[in-house]
């Protein structure tokens, strides 16, 4: 019998729900849920939410609760994670930099399952790097996202993160998070992964995953992510350097908070309009290459 390890951290419970459905075709699977020694809690306060930004972006690990694995060797690792601030969540980074887990995944095929608002490209790039450094082989990636408009989904997700309610804010904004339909559909991805595992051949797995036509990279999201990560890194480094006391760190985090609000709701729509009207026609081939890259596993 194949030995399968499914491991993840889920703050809201959504990723647990996604993996529960995704894993149905596999039958018996070992599940391990990552816990940090200093829990982030849910719902988040606004202050705690933004306080996680610098360490998320700079990919600094924290201490995890001890993990117990039933086996020393696995035939397949399924890693579920969420992006935080265009980076892997702090618990995910901590897991991928954990020496015990790095030994578990060394030389093993790994499938990543992402539960995200809509921006996962930079986070997956970081995960690819950490998997490669650990000697693992990424054979499949399945990002499940909130398909709502970018700006309205910001309102919805903040409602969920700060109030703890996965409901429509004010009754007019879309329900936050990955849709129930996409969660229910995720077992179809599980079927493809299991078939590849049974054959011991993952060469065409990602192509088969993409053939279901449920995964795409919107051009506007690609454009935003390519630029936003560098700006986030600048802010993260400034906050770490200048925030030498709790009071100073708080002031810089408040500055980042208002920068992010202005960037999302004022600057971003203007820049995207200019890009789509004037520049996009001249970058079609580049956009295509980048989408193929991010949708792949190499």
UniProtKB/TrEMBL annotation:
Transmembrane feature ranges: 258-279
Gene3D superfamilies hit by this protein: 3.40.50.360
Superkingdom of the organism of origin: Bacteria
Keyword vocabulary terms for this entry: Membrane, Transmembrane, Transmembrane helix
Protein name (record): Dialkylrecorsinol condensing enzyme
Native source organism of the sequence: Reichenbachiella agarivorans
Phylogenetic placement of the source organism: Bacteria, Pseudomonadati, Bacteroidota, Cytophagia, Cytophagales
